From TrEMBL, chain A:
Cellular localisation: Nucleus
GO BP terms: DNA-templated transcription
Protein name in the entry: DNA-directed RNA polymerases I and III subunit RPAC1
UniProt lineage: Eukaryota, Viridiplantae, Streptophyta, Embryophyta, Tracheophyta
CDD domains linked to this entry: RNAP_I_II_AC40
UniProtKB/TrEMBL annotation, chain B:
Protein name: DNA-directed RNA polymerase subunit beta
The keyword Zinc is assigned to this record: yes
Catalytic activity of the protein: RNA(n) + a ribonucleoside 5'-triphosphate = RNA(n+1) + diphosphate
GO terms classed as biological process: megagametogenesis; transcription by RNA polymerase III
Gene Ontology terms for molecular function: DNA binding; DNA-directed RNA polymerase activity; ribonucleoside binding; zinc ion binding
Domain DNA-directed RNA polymerase subunit 2 hybrid-binding: 683-1061
Pfam families: RNA_pol_Rpb2_1, RNA_pol_Rpb2_2, RNA_pol_Rpb2_3, RNA_pol_Rpb2_4, RNA_pol_Rpb2_5, RNA_pol_Rpb2_6, RNA_pol_Rpb2_7
Family: Belongs to the RNA polymerase beta chain family.
Gene that produces this protein: LOC125517167
Principal location: nucleus
A single Gene Ontology CC term: DNA-directed RNA polymerase complex
Enzyme Commission number: 2.7.7.6
InterPro entries: DNA-dir_RNA_pol_su2 (IPR015712), DNA-dir_RNAP_su2_dom (IPR007120), DNA-dir_RNAP_su2_hyb_sf (IPR037033), RNA_pol_bsu_CS (IPR007121), RNA_pol_bsu_protrusion (IPR007644), RNA_pol_Rpb2_2 (IPR007642), RNA_pol_Rpb2_2_sf (IPR037034), RNA_pol_Rpb2_3 (IPR007645)
Length: 355, 1157
């Protein structure tokens, strides 16, 4: 890397600074140089500045579907990339079932286990439309109510209860509080909805996937319950995590240390299970190995297992291939922007606390 | 052993293109040139014989044959006064399991018994013939019940016998449950297999003084005795309990009619060395001037221990020689010759041992052991009870006839008067105390409660063998692994600690024999050319070249062509003409052929090989796979036979059909193992790659596998165990073994496949602690359900007065009077599905205040006082009522069983273990985002410290990780059966690694991980993959305990002891020593007095005794000095004051001398 004043580091230092070397036995130079003045003596300034960051930072989206996305995030430090990953897993809020009111459960699955299973079902509800539930007054702005009422007739076949059978109740809870003190009043339910949730979102607030098995019922068994979903973050419980997982890997870089020809080349190509290498025909029956798809490298290290003088495997320290697998409440790209917003908020908080 | 006849359908070398036997391979794991996949034999064997078949077989033998033999031997009882009044048992059999309710017979099922605390028993029915009255009129009474006998599950008498899975489900029974146990008073009891030294066999050994002894424990139906012949100071003596002193053996021989010394020497053997050794004994006899039988008997008469009735010693010794001395050798019509020869053989073997120490017997040798099974034990008990019952009946009859009753009784009314058989059997099985006076048997702990902690625990119980020795003995011999255990007893599965090596477990394919008819076998031996003993002179017996033929420890005779005789016997066995468990063993060293058909021998099936060529061919296996052929067909066709430990010595058993190797001629191979993995037992069989582990690790796992939580049985949710641990999401292991599939562990797993990263993390992973991923726990990893049963009995006090269950009391507005009744339903029982908290009432029981009230007056509400059952739980935990069951117990009292369920997620301190004896507690729980993640986005479920590997050397765990990782990537369950690599029952590491590479993982299984905290790559590649982890039953919640102030013991006023009583934590002696050494006297004072049991006493300075304080007069007073002048106050531990008073009560006066105050 060229420094602003023109002078540059010697190659081996530059390599250490910008690459992680994946040797056969262990990776080296994994942590990089954090101190901005580490190479000041050589006239190289590695300090972070907004201008530099803006100049170098780049995002390239490779794949984007409803469920997952993969993009390259270039020109950023591992700590910041990791911050996004951590926020995605633990701090972007979603809605998840938190309270279950069990009316009837004669199935073999215990109430607590059934509730636990319900909690883990991803909901198709945009958490940005809801508030966190504060002092236990469930209303239309912080709670989504679902109902499940299935029974298996006596004499019929065994029945599988799927998540699709959860029925959204936009008007709030239908269960009345059996409070003997206020028997005269109009029956109070477990929620106090001011208005219907019908219009809060253009889509109905159903579950995301209809084919998740909740329970199985034998003949004569039944489940009747009401489930209340609230907003929360993955830090508290994994059910509120908006991602199945989110992770990154550093861009692989595969370097041939010397020219590999003919038989050796073929052997090398055969070794790699993901076909990183290819053969280039030099004419006259001469063949040469070239690195064709370094990105595909999974670091199985087959190419360096027996002889590590031919190939060197490296990772580019500031190039991240970031993958987000959404559980469905929000599309992955929105999740990422949410994560950025949360990080921004955090920074604001730090700044305001410091000033 | 060259086969005498080959099996008729054994075409030579069919599809058996064998390379010429060139010894090229040295290794046992040499590839098989034409492998016949014999594995299918194993499931076929287990289908026929089952996992606990030996228990069921032995019980079946008892209820079908044994019980009849017992009754036939004692079939007639008669009155003493009038032998014409008698009762004769014509037949006996076991009915259907049933219970008598109000003179009605109802059939019962095992599960019904478990739930209602009943005994699963069936009536013992006899057909009797008896005479009545003075006329001796004959009467017959068919189907007469003399008692109820607990029935072993899945035996012939059990309703579950021969039922298929659907029918079992209808009975509420789990199809995977092996049976073989009893249900007594609602608890499942196993009669453990008892290990004993074999009966009726000569054992040459040295005693604790180093003397050479030959001992025989004789056991017949009538008597049990122990005969010891011992060489002391070069002279040979007989030790028998009936004699006060050792008797010179030559005297014994003379007493039995061998009067000349020459004859004795001839019987022992003509070798002059024997003569030399016998010389001193003969001389001793001569110096005692004993030359004739009469003199010998007289000599022995003087030494009889106690003279019996009438103090007549004369003739006693002859009776002893006949009935006690080597009692199993019969004396017919006063013919002592068999006994003489037997004694001579004992002597000869003893002398052999002196001449050549190789010929000593090993007591720990499995061939010298017999396993006593439940059928035999119940049979002993039944025999005793049956005789007791008859004795009672005779006693009563005698008593009645003495009193000259007007209407004469008959026996049929007498035999059932007491519940001798029913209660005797029930008591013995439920307490485990086998007290049989007749056989001087006093054993404790014969039966044990079947542990239902996990499926493996209950299976392990069924194969367990308890030792004969007391466990305190320090000797290492019986604890050591015996080479003869190979294939019979599991080398891994033994507990740690005091019972280590003594308690053993059966291997997978072991069978324990039951008794077989002796008569036909004996006749067969004679027709095969055995020369009868009675026709032989002493000289001829030991003629060179001829072998003695021993049949179940008895000398039958001799045979001149031993090998031929053995081959003939084996041919008969292989063709099914004699029982398949008859063993024929040629002992070259002793010049003996042992034929054994007795029960309790361990044996296992092996494939017969003709000159190294397996008789089982591929087409046989195909027939088996197609279902045309069963395991019994293999036996019948002479392809497979059972060998017991002794006969194994005559066989050369190869692991695989192979070419010559290790210097073994292929042609000398007689048998081939069915599967090498059958060397292990059921519990050790679930360890993957155990042959790569350090041996004690497998042993540890065997102990731990029994503590793992999982699924217990298919009917687990309908059972009412007092404590049940279930894993919510139990999985089958990714890395399985063949044994796992055979025993059904894949259906009732006890663990989960966790992705493990072997690395150090956070410092909370030292000392084998593991770091767990919080998100994994959130998603259900390690979640378990603990179900506890709480039983309440509604007592009855007679006259129709009993406890009652009251509705929850409410005030006028309908609000509960007491908050702790919130979990109650309107009927006074707790409602299923209700959350129940600490101190809540679960049964609102009320007890009448007066229980002996005059009958007729109705009880009102006032006559009852509350005696509710209060739930004692952990504060802050949510427990739920699972079920409430009502039933009436055997005394017709109402029993309420509440089952309370608690779902727990793992917490710090809970114990986990892999299948390689690597246990560890959860050290900390870490958020998922802090966990490392791999290039593929995989985040481990738990992190294990690599320090667990070097010292433990559990390579199997590493291979399990690799295999599991390959398994998840390629979608095929991988196998890790013991020694399974050559036969394809275990995947090789190399293959696994290639699979890994194919799916983009490293060859070594190590992944490139990124730190979850800092985001940069970790400095090492981390070994990561799935390992099957078990959650063990030890959980912090059940163990944690702390207290500030709390309850105290009434007597000493010191804090109570133990967690269950909310006790204090003791500052023990050693802790006290530390404080003394440190000089922290005030701390000692505070701990031992102030925080324990401080008490203010009044001490009289004059007499030094304790006085008292009069609160009315506000003065202290000494009751000794009768004044209050010299009183001083002081504080002392209450226990100290108590000690003084107790001493005073024993006339010891402790006086206190005060220096100040």
């Amino acid at each position: 890397m060229e420094s602003p004043d023109g002078s540059s580091l010697p190659d081996f230092l530059e390599l250490q600074r910008t690459r992680v070397l994946c040797k056969a036995d262990a990776p080296t130079h994994t942590e990089g140089f954090q101190y901005s003045g580490a190479f000041a003596a050589m006239g190289v300034d590695t300090s972070v500045s907004v201008e530099k960051f803006c100049k170098n930072f780049k995002i390239e989206i490779n794949r984007l579907t409803d469920e997952d996305m993969e993009f390259d995030m270039i020109g950023i430090d591992a700590s910041i990339a990791n911050a996004f990953r951590r926020i995605l897993i633990a701090e972007v809020p979603t809605m998840a079932i938190e309270k279950v009111f069990m009316v009837d459960n004669t199935s073999v699955i215990a109430d607590e286990v059934l509730s636990h299973r319900l909690g883990l079902i991803p909901l198709d509800a945009d958490p940005r439309l809801f508030d966190y539930i504060s002092d236990d007054v469930p209303n239309e702005r912080n709670t989504i109510v679902y109902k499940l009422h299935v029974s298996c007739e006596k004499g019929s076949q065994r029945l599988t209860v799927k998540s699709g059978q959860l029925e959204w109740l936009p008007e709030g809870s239908q269960l009345t509080m059996a409070s003997p003190a206020q028997s005269g009043d109009n029956q109070r339910t477990y929620t106090s909805f001011g208005q219907s949730q019908q219009n809060t979102s253009e889509r109905p607030l159903d579950v995301k996937y209809n084919d998740i098995t909740i329970a199985r019922l034998g003949p004569g068994q039944a489940i009747e319950l009401e489930a209340h979903a609230v907003k929360g973050v993955g830090k508290v419980h994994a059910k509120w995590s908006p991602v199945a997982t989110a992770w990154y890997r550093m861009l692989p870089e595969v370097v041939l240390l010397k020219e590999i020809k003919n038989g050796d080349a073929e052997e090398l190509v055969k070794k790699c299970p993901v076909n990183v290498f290819d053969i280039e025909d030099l004419g006259k029956g001469e063949k040469r190995a070239v690195v064709a798809k370094p990105r595909a490298c999974t670091l199985c290290r087959e190419c360096v297992r027996l002889a590590d003088d031919q190939v060197e495997l490296r990772r580019v320290r500031d190039h991240f291939i970031f993958t987000i697998e959404s559980t469905g409440s929000l599309p992955p790209e929105v999740l990422f922007t949410e994560a950025v917003n949360i990080l921004e908020e955090k920074c604001e908080r730090v700044i305001s606390e410091l000033s | 052993m060259p086969p005498a006849t080959s099996a008729p359908d054994a075409p030579v070398a069919e599809g058996d293109a064998e390379a010429p036997p060139v010894p090229t391979y040295r290794s046992l794991a040499a590839p098989v040139s034409n492998p016949v996949d014999k594995f299918a034999l194993l499931p076929a064997f287990l289908k026929v014989r089952g996992l606990v078949k030996e228990h069921i077989d032995s019980f079946n033998y008892f209820i079908t044959k044994g019980i009849k033999n017992i009754v036939r031997a004692n079939n007639r009882i008669e009155a003493r006064s009038d032998p014409g009044i008698y009762l004769e048992y014509k037949n006996i059999y076991i009915g259907e399991p049933s219970v008598q309710v109000d003179f009605r017979v109802e059939t019962i099922t095992p599960h019904f018994c478990r739930l209602t605390d009943r005994t699963y028993s069936a009536p013992v029915i006899v057909d009797v013939e008896y005479t009545v009255g003075k006329t001796h009129a004959k009467h017959r009474k068919p189907s007469f019940t003399i008692g109820y006998m607990p029935i072993m599950l899945r035996s012939y008498a059990c309703v579950l016998n021969g039922k298929d899975e659907a029918e079992l489900a209808r009975y509420g029974e789990c199809p995977l449950d092996p049976g073989g146990y009893f249900i007594v008073k609602g608890t499942e009891k196993v009669i453990l297999i008892q290990e004993q030294l074999s009966k009726n066999r000569i054992i040459i050994d040295t005693d604790n003084k180093g003397r050479v002894t030959a001992s025989v424990t004789s056991s017949t139906h009538e008597v049990k005795s122990k005969t010891v012949i011992c060489m002391d100071k070069e002279k040979i003596y007989l030790h028998l309990n009936q004699f006060t002193k050792p008797i010179p053996i030559i005297v014994v021989m003379k007493a039995m009619g061998i009067e000349t010394d020459q004859e004795v020497v001839q019987m022992v053997g003509r070798d002059p060395r024997y003569g030399d050794l016998l010389y001193l004994s003969i001389q001793e006899c001569a110096t005692e001037r004993i030359y004739t039988q009469q003199q010998a008997l007289q000599y022995m008469d003087d030494k009889v221990t106690y003279a019996g009735a009438g103090n007549i010693k004369d003739g006693r010794s002859k009776l002893i020689l006949r009935d006690v001395f080597v009692a199993h050798v019969p004396v017919n019509n006063g013919n002592f010759q068999p006994k003489c020869i037997y004694t001579a053989v004992m002597l000869r073997r003893m002398l052999d041992a002196i001449l050549n120490s190789d010929t000593f017997d090993d007591k720990d040798y499995v061939g010298n052991k017999r396993l006593e099974l439940s059928g035999q034990l119940v049979s002993l008990l039944f025999e005793d009870l049956f005789k007791t019952m008859n004795t009672y009946a005779v006693d009563r009859m005698n008593k009645n006839s003495d009193m000259a009753r007007s209407s004469p009784l008959d026996f049929s009314q007498l035999i059932m008067q007491q519940d001798v058989i029913t209660s005797g059997l029930e008591r013995a099985i439920s307490t485990g105390n086998w007290d049989i006076k007749r056989f001087k048997m006093h054993r404790k702990g014969v039966s044990q409660v079947l542990s239902r902690l996990s499926y493996m625990a209950s299976l392990g119980y069924m194969t367990r063998i308890t030792p004969q020795f007391e466990k305190t003995r320090k000797t290492s011999g019986p604890r050591a692994l015996q080479p003869s255990q190979w294939g019979m007893l599991c080398p891994c599965d033994t507990p740690e600690g005091e019972a280590c090596g003594l308690t053993k477990n059966l291997a997978l394919m072991t069978h324990v024999t039951t008794d077989q008819e002796e008569g036909p076998l004996r006749n067969l031996c004679f027709s095969l050319g055995v020369e009868d003993l009675s026709l032989l002179s002493g000289e001829e017996i030991h003629a060179p070249g001829s072998f003695l033929v021993m049949f179940n420890g008895l000398i039958l005779g001799k045979h001149r062509q031993p090998q031929r005789f053995a081959n003939n016997m084996r041919t008969f066995r292989r063709s099914g003409k004699i029982g398949e468990f008859v063993s024929v063993f040629v002992n070259e060293k002793q010049h003996c052929i042992h034929i054994a058909s007795d029960g309790g021998r361990v044996c296992r099936p092996l494939i017969i090989a003709d000159k190294g060529r397996s008789r089982v061919k591929e087409h046989h296996m195909k027939e088996l796979r197609d279902g045309i052929r069963s395991f019994d067909d293999f036996l019948r066709d002479g392809l497979i036979e059972y060998l017991d430990v002794n006969e194994e010595n005559n066989a050369l058993i190869a692991l695989y059909e192979h070419v010559d190797q290790d210097g073994v001629q292929r042609s000398s191979i007689t048998h081939i193992e069915i599967e090498p993995m059958t060397i292990l037992g059921v519990v050790a069989g679930l360890i993957p790659y155990p042959h790569h582990n350090q041996s004690p690790r497998n042993t540890y796992q065997c102990a731990m596998g029994k503590q793992a939580m999982g699924n217990i049985a298919y009917n687990q949710l309908f059972r009412a165990d007092s404590l049940l641990y279930l894993l919510v999401y139990a999985q089958r292991p990714l890395l399985t073994t063949k044994t796992i599939e055979l025993v059904g562990y894949d259906k009732l797993g006890a663990g989960q496949n966790a992705t493990v990263a072997v690395m150090s993390y956070s410092g909370y992973d030292i000392e084998d602690a593991i770091v767990m991923n919080k998100s994994s726990l959130d998603r259900g990893f390690g979640r378990c359900i603990a179900m506890k049963k709480y039983t309440v009995t509604s007592e009855k006090y007679g006259d129709g007065i009993s406890d009652r269950i009251a509705k929850p009391q409410r005030d006028r507005d309908g609000v509960l009077i007491k908050q702790n009744m919130r979990a109650l339903d309107e009927d006074g029982f707790v409602a299923p599905g209700q959350i129940i908290r600490n101190h809540d009432i679960y049964v609102n029981k009320q007890t009448p205040k007066v229980t002996n009230r005059t009958p007729g007056t109705a009880l009102t509400d006032r006559d009852y006082r509350d005696s509710p059952a209060v739930y004692k739980g952990v504060d802050g935990e949510t427990t739920v009522v699972d079920r409430v069951m009502l039933c009436s117990d055997t005394n017709d009292k109402l029993t309420i069983k509440c089952i309370i369920r608690h779902t727990r997620r793992p917490e710090v301190g809970d114990k986990f273990s892999s299948r390689h004896g690597q246990k560890g507690v959860c050290g900390t729980i870490v958020q998922q985002e802090d966990f490392p993640f791999s290039e593929k986005g995989i985040c481990p479920d738990l992190i294990m410290n690599p320090h667990g590997f070097p010292s433990r050397m559990t390579i199997g765990k590493m291979i399990e990780l690799l295999g599991g990782k390959a398994g998840v990537s390629c979608g095929r369950f991988h196998y890790g059966s013991i020694f399974g690599e050559p036969s394809g029952n275990a995947d090789k590491v190399e293959d696994i690694s290639h699979t890994l590479v194919k799916h983009g993982f490293s060859y070594s299984g190590k992944d490139f991980l990124y730190s979850g905290i800092l985001g940069h790559p970790l400095q090492a590649y981390v070994f990561m993959g799935p390992i099957y982890y078990q959650k063990l039953k030890h959980m912090v919640l059940d163990k944690m305990h702390a207290r500030a102030s709390g309850p105290r013991v009434l007597l000493t006023r010191q804090p109570t002891e133990g967690r269950s009583r909310d006790g204090g934590l003791r500052l023990g002696e050693m802790e006290r020593d530390c404080l003394i050494a440190y000089g922290a006297s005030m701390l000692i004072f505070e701990r031992l007095l102030l925080s324990s049991d401080p008490y203010q006493v009044q001490v009289c300075r004059k007499c030094g005794l304790l006085g008292y304080y009069n609160y009315k007069l506000k003065t202290s007073f000494c009751s000794m000095c009768k004044n209050g002048e010299n009183m001083a106050k002081m504080r002392m531990p209450y226990a100290c004051k108590l000690l003084f008073q107790e001493l005073q009560s024993m006339n010891v006066v402790p006086r206190l001398t005060l220096t100040e105050g």
